[in-house]
Amino acid sequence: MRLMSQVSAEHARWALAADTDQGVRVCPLDDRGRQAGPVRHEPDAARAVGRLPAGTRWVWRSTAEFYPPLLRAGARVERCYDVEVAEGLLLAHEGRFGAPRSLAAAWARLHGLPEPADRPPDTPDAPPSLFGSGPVPLAAGTDPLAALLEVYAAQLARTAALPHPGRMRLLLAAESAGWLVAAEMGEAGMPWREDVHRELLTELLGERYPGGLEPQRLAELAEEVSRAFGPGERVRPDRPADVVRAFGRAGVPLRSSRAWELRSIDHPAVEPLLRYRRLYRLHTAHGWSWLRAWVRDGRFRSSYLPAGAPSGRWTTNGGGALQIPRVVRRAVVADPGWRLVVADADQLEPRVLAAVSGDAGLQQVSAGDGDMYAVLSDRAFAGDRERAKLALLGAMYGQTSGDGLRHLAELRRRFPAAVAYVDDAAREGEQGRLVRTWLGRTCPPAVRADPHGGEDTFDAEGEAAADAGADERSPGERGAAAARARGRFTRNFVVQGSAADWALLMLAALRRSLVGLRAELVFFQHDEVIVHCPAEEAERVTAAVREAGQVAGELTFGTTPVRFPFSTAVVGCYADAK
DNA sequence: CAATTCGGGGGG
DNA sequence: CCCACCCCCCGAATTG
């Protein structure tokens, strides 16, 4: 199929490795990853890339290391295969979790030699520095290109030996493409109007006072909160313990000062306190110091980390690019004459569940481009869309109580295969086994609980011990609670992770269809993309996004009736989308 | 004194 | 009222 060849197949593959001087060495590869022609030395990586056809798939040690300098030198790569990323995915699939994944370690494993440890991951602090730490060095005397070829060929063989080699090949290609996209988005940056952001801060927070004092509006609100508790009272709204004590003195006992709990009580301090909290958050997380640290020359540049989360979802390194509050989106404004195409995949996770589970009923519900929850509620929930949505989400999250749970029975009756799919994943997790996404990303193993004390990370969450202070549960009860928590994790993993599989393929397809346009991908957040483009390209970009969603669905899940529609908006400002 | 945890709140 | 899943970020409080 034509679509297939776009992402996976027949493009010449070349290996690229750093040379001892500043240059690189490259050579062509055959389809088993062996050298298929002479090695060429090139003094300049960008020139080396430019000399070969655009469709060439570059096999290299690390995209994060090689690609950003290439981009800065003006060289674009359409396809690559990232050997260290692949090593991580293959090791996980093989259940070898402790093993280091650098090229050096992979090569050492092939030779039965001691494996050097991986570099610790970058700590999120200063702006963009993807690999400040540099590569793990190869054993002395090892030729980098030869090591690369050897590890790559071995990876092809390991992939071929898997139960679903085609899926893993797709995943490796897609994850590699993800790293290309990540580097390009980091380079492009998100259009950001500093002046608009400052206006907004002044409007909401008031004047800033020098010397680290809180801005005017926060100071006033803090004052108002104190006054509400009576004369002489002094309450700092940003100190939860302070707040709880103050309400206690006022005769309102609270278990915490969380917003939902505050909202349930009747006291004049509540309203200004909640306003203070919202503005305080804006001030500390997206205020003036954030602007200074992250926005330069009209762009917000964050560094994206594909598969930063175990499920394959991306994270960012600093700047909080995936948590931009709605109010702040007003500052995301297209350049003059340009537009933002903002596209949001509709009901992605339920549609993914329909695709992976093969549930005939749920596939019928997902076979249209319209609001899937509406269709679902018409068929099974007496037209109550909200209940239908909560029931489905509850099933995917492993809800243990509440309203949605009551409707789970109805879901189970109507969509038995879909519910069984997530139930199976939960049971696997509870019994300590691993689960995988559709393309074969493997969940991390359960962390062993330490019998002599320290709980593991899938701990308590208070199933039995809501009140009673100290945890009264026996080790057996704690183990059972941990197993249930693990079950909820694996239950959700197969859906969230398979959605991340789809998103990678979608990004790869979209990226390819933007070649030749001036349009740039500038933002990606789980199920949402933003493309910045000249106004006259907006229509084509919108079509390209829709096409990419559909292509990704077919590539990821094969032939399926499930549709993967997007809600799209062409806007000048992000805040005006949706 | 530095590092870690907690509580609160932002995103999907 | 929330919950249940995956995250990031900040300042205060606590701990080594």
Structure description:
A hairpin with a 3-residue loop joins strand 12 (520-524) and strand 13 (528-534). The longest helix is centred in the last third of the chain and has 39 residues, at 475-513. The chain is α+β, with helices and mostly antiparallel strands. The relative contact order is 0.10. Helix 4 runs parallel beside helix 6 (144-160) and helix 9 runs antiparallel to helix 12. The protein is globular. The protein has a 5-stranded mixed β-sheet with strand order 3-2-1-4-5. It has a 4-stranded antiparallel β-sheet with strand order 12-13-11-14. Helices cover 47% and strands 11% of the residues. The protein has 21 helices and 14 strands. It binds a DNA duplex (12 and 16 nucleotides) through helix 11, helix 12, helix 17, helix 18 and helix 20.
